[in-house]
Design a protein that fits this description.
- The complex is a heterodimer of chains A (798) and B (347).
- Chain A is α+β, with helices and mostly antiparallel strands and 798 residues long.
- Helix content of chain A is 26%, strand content 26%.
- In chain A, strand 20 and strand 21 (323-324) form a beta hairpin.
- In chain A, helix 7 (232-240) crosses helix 8.
- The radius of gyration of chain A is 41 Å and the shape is elongated.
- Chain B is α+β, with helices and mostly antiparallel strands and 347 residues long.
- Chain B has 2 domains: 2-87; 105-344, Bira Bifunctional Protein, Domain 2 (BirA Bifunctional Protein, domain 2, 2-Layer Sandwich).
- Helices cover 37% and strands 18% of the residues of chain B.
- Chain B is built from 12 helices and 9 strands.
- Chain B has a 7-stranded mixed β-sheet with strand order 1-4-5-9-8-7-6, with helices on both faces. In chain B, strands 2-3 form a two-stranded antiparallel ribbon.
- The chains are: A alpha+beta (798), B alpha+beta (347).
- At the A-B interface, helix 2, helix 9, helix 12, helix 14 and helix 15 of A face helix 1, helix 4, helix 5, strand 1 and helix 8 of B.
């Protein structure tokens, strides 16, 4: 809500300084989204003198003015006759290029052949509440070209106040003023609303047929109004608040809504046949709204969702609480006005507004909750009074007030001890009573009864009153104090610890952690995903590129490599730990994954032994990560998966279960993005590793007897996997084999093309004695025999 | 037969241990001399079957070359002045290495907060990104018609074919990690005290600009006991702020609104950059908004199976993106998700 502080101060006495007002608003709980202090922000607007004026060709309401904006600098400005102007006047001028506090940027404007170089600004356009005619007029030629902030004293601000949904009572200036009065110890001044003296008009009967949706409906006739423009003081206040003045009657309803927070509606009495009926739209009924749209209650549609109508004896005239109908509204020919002030149930207004896609300043307030008592009555009386004073009203009819079951003030018990034990500070009974009384509550001396004004729709529990007390006392009164309650030990989950271990492993090997975007496009072939379940998509995505929950971390890692390659990175080492999503059955499944990407040179700084990364560098990183989790040793099984080059991908198997995949990213995919070095990627699921890993290790006695080392070199068939050979070696060697490591693999020159030479280094050891050379040699013999039998491997050396 | 690799390993150790040219020469004689250990290996070649001779010979020769190289290299270190300057070790050449890996700055922020809060007795757990309408809204005192729902522009999940879900079970992307409150209380089955925290991604249908991204990370915390107060909340937040921003950090509480807390407080921290002298980061106010907090609503406790007459609790939620940006003075949220190396390596 946009608040002009000068208007707000109309409701407070004694007058308080602008700075105090701005500090007090946040204490109320009203966030200041922007505060435009006009004395500062209007500085670029200067005083220009009108030197000549002629009608703009082809129009009756516009003038072309020659305006001297600085000594000898005359600009042509087109001015609409919202306010009379005279040659010789000094007026506020915003030249093209000026930004006004209300957010409007003034530019050059063309009217046919005539170019307007700026704007002559009314008070409302400047964000000022008008004190005079709505246009600042200066006669002193010495002010020519001066900033208007020098020419006149400006002590106002336009404040964009954020009113949270719980406080619709602050959607009117009186509501805000009431809170400020409590905070600043000021007095609230309600606007005067003298009752009419002449009652010669009839009353209009009201029938509420939907009492659950409309709690109260009042209406009153004011006769003899003359439709015209509003007085400057009202028009400029509306403009400052961001509303466009329309005509005096409509402006009055808007003005009073901004004042009291109570929406009003004015009907042209001659369009109201016999009576007002508050009822739901009947099947087949239509209504053309003020904004030109039509709504219709289709036949056959459930009555349950039918919107509420304000109808006369025959047809709906307005969409209750949301928007008036076109034909029953105020027009230039209106002379008798029927003014509605009503209270509608918030939920009904909200649901209808949503369903029909119609909203307004009225519905915004009704759907948050208005006050059926004091505010409604105050607004009603004020509008009637203004219809007399500002719209020429001559006579009134008696008020019709349909209020079948009046809303009562809610009552709570709020002992001071409860306030103290909730806030954790000592609050006295007197403090509670004084705070709540300032906000309009009535408190019994022992606080067993606190009754709350009906405008406070948010107070549905005594805790809200505790907040009220805290606000009045000031939140700074709540000092920090440690809880006397027994502390508990904090901690985290095994999964969380696993993520941290994996992260430490990868950052330790020089990988950068990235943060991807978990939403991806639906189109395009699905790449890299190991998930079998259905995809999960958003019903209302922001755009097509962010419409599906990602099923693999690898695509974003590739994207990151591409992004950095375009910034001259050549070595890629990235990882991400995040969720991947699918729906394998009825419920969605979120799995924690680790994605790794590796490409380019092994080292970043290397002037001597530069080498490109290959598959085994990534495999090593994967194995290290698994080791950091104390996971059982993984085995790797060839596989194929979209996104990885054929013949380069392997499943990662731990404890017999596939927990991930690694491989080389398809070169075509990267070449398209100008990456020509080989890039490798892996993706592992973390949860199964947590379940299978050892939580804490059990000590194994350290070896006490020396080890015996043996190397073995043999020729094996090229297609025999190393893992099979190693398994055979381990099996043949039995318990004495402590470790076996592959030290060399060679194929090529001097070797049968169907074969490759593999050299392993083995360590033998017994836990209870020193192994003799003969024993170990015998074991090695067994190994050689087994390799020969099973794989036709030939010994090269031992 | 002795393993060659074992022999090489032993020899290399001795070479590296040799401190003088004389000692080094002794090692050379021990292995490569006429009667040296490696030399005598070659002599045993004759006893091998013909087909093995070649391979064995090769491995001995390779070992010999390796030892000679190591001897020469070591000589250049121990033999002072014995060499021309050109062959000296140039210690100023760059080390052969990978640049250090780093966690993402948001990870560091979140882990720092988790560590501080664990010290204050909070227990960490993960919760789903895909939530039900119930836990994200209803259980947090935000029924379907509630205008507060307008404050969160929500992404909904496309319903799966042919399945009718009750309104409250409709799936959506959680708009705040606060959704975990109901799940934790339900799992605790009425038991207090509870001191729980979580962090994770949240999703809101915001357009992307310098301070908005449709995906962001929150850290949410709540505690329920028999008499926890707003003062405890303030103490907890003060400790957290000190750990996060340094011992001098001050906090300011302002009234605010969240459907799931009353009293609610927006919390500002004293500007860490200008020490409250006024700078652009704090818009010259000396204060920076960092989190939302408050006392848990009775409705929320009740829906979590607790009794508001007996139990009281506090809660707060922090934007991890925002705190990360503050801690490092990052001016555009998009940097956090662009993963430019020049960015990632700064933290």
């Amino acid at each position: 809500m946009i608040v002009n502080t000068e208007w707000l101060l109309d409701y407070l006495t004694p007058r308080c300084a602008l700075a105090d007002l701005l500090t007090a608003l946040p204490r109320v709980g009203l966030d200041i989204e922007a505060a435009h202090v006009l004395e500062r922000e209007l500085a670029p607007v200067r005083v220009g003198f009108i030197r000549a004026k002629r009608p703009l060709a082809g129009t009756s309401d516009k003038f072309v003015c020659d305006v001297e904006v600085a000594k000898g600098d005359v600009r042509q400005i087109v001015c609409a006759s919202a306010h009379p102007i005279e040659v010789g006047w000094g007026v506020p001028v915003a030249l093209a290029g000026t930004d006004l506090p209300n957010g409007e940027s003034i530019g050059e404007a063309s009217f046919g052949d005539v170019v307007s170089k700026g704007m002559i600004c009314l008070d409302g356009e400047l964000g000022l509440s008008a004190k005079g005619t709505g246009l600042q007029v200066f006669k002193d030629e010495a002010l020519l070209g001066k900033s208007i902030t020098e020419a006149t004293k400006i002590d106002e601000a336009l404040v964009h106040v954020k009113v949270y949904p719980n406080r619709p009572d602050c959607l009117g200036l009186i509501g805000i003023a009431r809170e400020l009065a409590a905070m600043l110890d000021l007095k609230l001044v309600l606007p005067s609303a003298p009752a009419p003296t002449v009652y010669t008009k009839d009353s209009v009967p009201v029938e509420i047929q939907a009492p659950s949706l409309c709690t109260r409906y009042t209406c009153q006739v004011v006769g003899g109004v003359r439709i015209g423009k509003s007085q400057p003081w009202m028009a400029s206040r509306l403009m400052a608040a961001g509303l466009r003045p329309i005509n005096n009657v409509v402006d009055i309803t808007n003005f009073v809504m901004l004042e009291w927070g109570q929406p009003l509606h004015a009907f042209d009495l001659k369009r109201v046949r016999e009576k007002i009926v508050v009822r739901k739209f009947a099947a087949g009924e239509t209504l053309r709204l003020l904004d030109g749209r039509s709504i219709e209650q289709k036949t056959g549609e459930s009555d349950e969702y039918a919107p509420l109508a304000i109808a006369d004896a025959h047809a709906p005239m307005a969409l209750a609480g949301i928007m008036g109908g076109e034909s029953s509204g105020i027009s230039e020919t209106t002379s008798d006005v029927l003014l509605e002030a009503a209270h509608f149930e918030p939920t009904g207004i909200r649901l209808s507004g949503r369903r029909l896609g119609v909203s307004s300043d009225s519905s915004y307030r009704f759907e948050r909750g208005t006050d059926p008592n004091e505010s409604l009555e105050g607004a009603q009386a004020r509008a009637i009074a203004l219809l007399f004073s500002e719209a020429g009203g001559q006579s009134a009819g008696p008020l019709t007030d349909a209020y079948p079951s009046p809303a009562k003030r809610a009552v709570f018990a709020l002992p001071a001890e409860r306030v103290s034990s909730y806030l954790g500070i000592h609050v006295t009974r007197e403090q509670v009573i004084s705070s709540l009384t300032k906000l309009g509550c009535n408190c019994s001396d022992d606080l067993s009864r606190v009754d709350v004004p009906t405008r406070r729709v948010d107070v549905n529990d005594a805790v809200v009153l505790i907040e009220d007390v805290a606000r009045v006392l000031g939140y700074e009164a709540i000092t920090p104090a440690a809880s006397p309650e027994t502390p508990t030990a904090g901690g985290t989950t095994a999964l969380d610890q696993a993520r941290q271990a994996v992260r430490a492993s990868l950052t330790g090997s020089g990988f950068l952690e990235i943060r991807g975007v978990p939403l991806e496009p639906v189109e395009g072939a699905e790449m890299f995903s190991q998930l079998a379940g259905a995809s999960i998509t958003l019903a209302n995505p922001l755009n097509a590129d962010l419409s599906r929950l990602r099923r693999s971390l690898v695509p974003f890692l590739v994207k990151t490599a591409v992004y950095n390659a375009s910034r001259r990175a050549v070595n890629f080492r990235y990882f991400e730990i995040d969720k991947v999503f699918s729906r394998p059955a009825k419920d969605p499944e979120e799995r924690w994954a680790l994605g790794i990407l590796l490409g380019g040179a092994l080292n970043d700084a290397d002037w001597s032994t530069r080498r490109e990364c290959d598959f085994f560098d990534l495999k090593g990183a994967v194995e290290s990560a698994l080791e950091s989790l104390r996971a059982p040793k993984a085995t790797f099984v060839p596989t194929s998966l979209d996104g990885y080059a054929e013949g380069t991908a392997a499943q990662i198997v731990v404890n017999g279960a596939v927990i991930g995949v690694l491989g080389q990213v398809k070169a075509e995919m990267l070449a398209a993005e100008r990456i020509y070095q080989p890039v490798f990627a892996a993706e592992l699921f973390i949860e199964p590793l947590v379940a299978g890993s050892r939580v804490s290790a059990t000590f194994v006695a350290l070896p006490r007897f020396p080890a015996v080392f043996r190397d073995l070199s043999f020729l094996a068939n090229r297609d025999t996997p190393y893992a099979a050979l190693e398994t055979a070696i381990r099996e043949a060697a039995g318990a004495q084999l402590e470790s076996v490591d592959c030290m060399d693999v060679f194929a090529g020159k001097g070797i049968d093309p169907a074969k490759r030479s593999i050299a392993v280094s083995m360590v033998f050891r017994a836990a209870d004695r020193t192994l003799s050379s003969e024993e170990v040699n015998a074991t090695v013999d067994q190994i050689i025999e087994r390799l020969g039998k099973e794989f036709s491997a030939e010994l090269r050396s031992r | 037969m002795q393993s060659i690799s074992e022999l090489v390993e032993r020899a290399l150790a001795q070479i590296n241990a040799a401190a003088t040219p004389a000692a080094l020469d002794q090692v050379r004689v021990q292995y490569l001399g006429k009667a040296g250990e490696l030399t005598s290996q070659l002599k045993s070649l004759g006893s091998l079957p013909a087909e093995e001779r070649k391979a064995f010979g090769q491995s001995v020769n390779a070992a010999k070359a390796q030892l000679e190289e190591a001897l020469n290299e070591r000589k250049s270190v121990v033999g002072q002045g014995a060499k021309p300057a050109s062959a000296m070790l140039d210690v100023t050449l760059p080390g052969r290495r990978r640049l250090a890996g780093r966690p993402h700055p948001m990870t560091v922020t979140a882990e720092t907060m988790k560590r501080i809060l664990m010290g204050l007795g909070f227990t960490y757990e993960d919760f789903p990104d895909i939530e039900t309408e119930y836990f994200n809204f209803d259980a947090l005192n935000t029924p379907p018609w509630h205008p507060a729902r307008d404050m969160h522009d929500t992404f909904y999940i496309t319903p799966t074919d042919g399945e009718h879900r009750l309104q409250t079970e409709a799936e959506l992307m959680r708009t705040h990690t606060t959704a975990f409150q109901g799940r934790v209380m339900r799992a605790r089955n009425g038991q207090v005290p509870i001191r729980a925290m979580t962090t994770g991604r949240c999703y809101r249908k915001d357009d992307i600009d310098a301070s908005h991204f449709p995906i962001f990370q929150q850290l949410d915390v709540f505690a329920v006991g028999t008499n926890l107060t707003m003062s405890d909340l303030r103490w907890t937040l003060t400790e957290l702020a000190k750990g996060l921003f340094g011992g001098e950090a001050k906090l300011r509480f302002r009234p605010s609104y969240f459907p799931f807390t009353t009293p609610s407080a927006e919390v500002d921290v004293s500007c860490i950059i200008c020490k409250q002298k006024g700078c652009s980061l704090c818009s010259r106010t000396g204060w920076i908004e960092v989190l939302g907090s408050g006392m848990m609503r009775p409705e929320v406790l009740k829906m979590g199976g607790l009794d508001p007459a007996k139990h009281q609790g506090f809660a707060f939620g922090i934007g991890v993106d925002r705190i990360t940006m503050l801690r490092h003075q990052i001016n555009d949220i998009r940097h956090l998700y662009q993963n430019e190396e020049a960015f990632l390596r700064q933290f």
